[in-house]
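A quick aside before the break. I want you to see a complete sequence-to-structure record at least once, exactly as it would be stored in a machine-readable document. Don't worry about memorizing anything.
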Amino acid sequence: NIGYIGYDMLYINVYKAQNNIPKIVKGYLVKFENIDILRGADRRAFLQSIVSSLNRENYDSSVAPEDLSENFDIVLLNVPEDKLSRISSKYKRLGPSFTKVDITRKDIIERAWKNRVRIDLLKRGLLKIGDRYILEEDVLDRTNKFKRAFRVQAAIIDNSPSIYVDPRIRVMIPLGDKGINQADEMGEESKIYVRVLPHWQKGILIGTTGKKAAEMQFPIGNKTFPGHKYWRIKHNIRFIKPHEAMLNVYVAAYEKKLPYPESCVFAEFKRRASLPDYLKKDPHTRVDESLHFIRKYFSSTYFLGKKLIFKGPVTTADLCYHEYIFPSQTSFQVVVGNGMTTTIKGLHKALRRHGPYSGRFDGKYVVVHYGDEDKILKATLSLRKIYSALNLGELTPVSIGKAGLIDTGGESVADYTSTIAELRTAIMEEQEKVIALIVLPDVYSSEIYFKSRAQLFERVFGAEPIPAQAISYTALEKVASGHQSSYAICVNTASQCYIKLGGTGTAVWILKDPADISIPRVERGSSCYAYHDVSRRPKIKASATAYSALTDSYGRYIATGAKPIGGEKLTPSNFYDILVELIQKVSVFVKRYGVVGRDKRFRFRRLVFAKDGVIRDEEANMMAEVITNGLPDERKPPIPQLLKKIPMLPEQLVIDIISVNKTPNKRIFKKVEDKFLNVMEGTAISYDENTGLLVSCSSHIGTVQPIEISLCEHLCLNGGSIPRPHISQIMDEYYRLTFLNWSSVFKQGKYALPQILTQNLGENISAGVFVPDDMILL
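That is the input. The structure line, written in tokens, reads:
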């Protein structure tokens, strides 16, 4: 059951040109002798502006790759010799020199193709906003915040110019005078979160600059332009008016305050909010819209002198990709109490009969609320009964308040935080572990959610952190009224309360077979998973924090961890410190929880270090270099040497570094009787040995979004050579970890358990919550 090759015809949202690229492309390497901009980002940006200008005149070109940048600046492809004089004359002041070459490198040709696609779309009235293209007229329409958008990714596939196209929605909420006035009043204490054009970066609105667009000057090369002209020349944004107000926005990614035209600043979309169902496109609609987009915008596209004709969507067979099907929820087995096995579908009944894997946990609860006390009391009693019925243990109210209920007296953030501060002292006298149920009102719910957690997690006057479980007042009303969803709400809430009361080593259920069963020549059950990301608090000059969550290969929770790292880039020193801390935490866990179930020994032999998002080649190389050679200048020894030196650590260890991209610009469809449909969960494809797509969760509305997983590095420390796993085996391992979503008993989720824990940890860190290492967040 580690996955087998499927036989259904699958399609990918890629559209390939029927023209192949010649094996040799005639071209020129160009050097500008008179550019007075130093090397670095500014120089590359200037060169890119030249390339964009050349592309607008239908010359295919790209900035020279890094390894050629010492001697050359740009590359011209398929430019006739008689056109060189025109190009030379246009850039005469920069002193161009041309070197004729035969171009065979795919990376140079692919960069030129990406430039061609981008410029052709801009010429046809589309704006690039973040990773999406949107019609300018839609951006200017302030009556509808849901903008039609397309994610477009150019690539060279099988020696053919190709385009991934995915119709999307970009939520662009007009800012309005109220938000601007509030930011003016608060200044650097502002909490007006925004997005800015053109890159759709997150920021904090600080207020107005007091100047108009025409009154501010911005540099491009060695010239300066007024704001409305600068944005047109630099970013192709043509709707900036000379009299438009300029706003100050602190952009965390750049770590500085920058001026933006008012029409380029939009309010941030509400956290955890989702699109309305009517905007979620089914597969057939998505393919239809993509085909229309290709016909409309690429029917007259030329590249390397040839007109391109596209076909698609393309089958996986045409791309020579391999297909796999992994076990479904109906057959996948897990272990609950008393060592009993069940399928995911039979999980709820098994819990009622046998209880959770880790045994019963009794605890006390306090309910912090504002609203109808009788309803909340009735809903809380239902939750207690279901906690008991699932054999999780017994929940009883603390001895303060009315049956453990504490009324905040209001629904503001201050009402909740003041109430929590007061009850912390009273809870200290409780002997059993206490969990706080935070009933979120309809207003300020997000801020109350995080502020309440921050106060409960804080260690004050010797008081230990208190785990928190949030539940909306609307959900409690459904429970109190016996709504059809009330039972599921109580079951899922009870499961989360159980995990939070149990902490390290706890699991409602675990996998019958460890997730690493598919990994060749690795001791079964010896793997641990650390999912890693970097977050920055939405506050001016706040430092970034790297954070991780750990589980073992059966699904037992180990720990979380966070480390301030300054900037958002993972430096060699920070990576080394994080890795050593992870290995130490697992080693301590092994000492205490070395037995799984009744008779299985858990020995730590493999660490999977997974990063949320894409890991670039240079970053992967840095990680491998740090692991293998350490950091001698900082007196940090190689990891293999450290493993041998410290008895607590495993002497031999395999480290696999993987990237998990949650939202790649790729979709998988199947076709039945000329209609495109969603594929079943557990469907996967591999492009090659190292990268593939996995559909880990089905969807009845819209189109499933696959996850793109890549194996970036495979390192064997102090042991024999363990073969590098195939990406299908890594995807199988990831897929097994998605069956551990303890917050959803009746339906498993899309992401692996350690990734869910990491995402939740990141949200809390971003909101300024300090999370203790042993505090699980679901």
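Two observations worth writing down. The mean pLDDT is 90. The domain at 362-502 is CATH 3.40.50.2300 (Rossmann fold). We'll return to this after the break.
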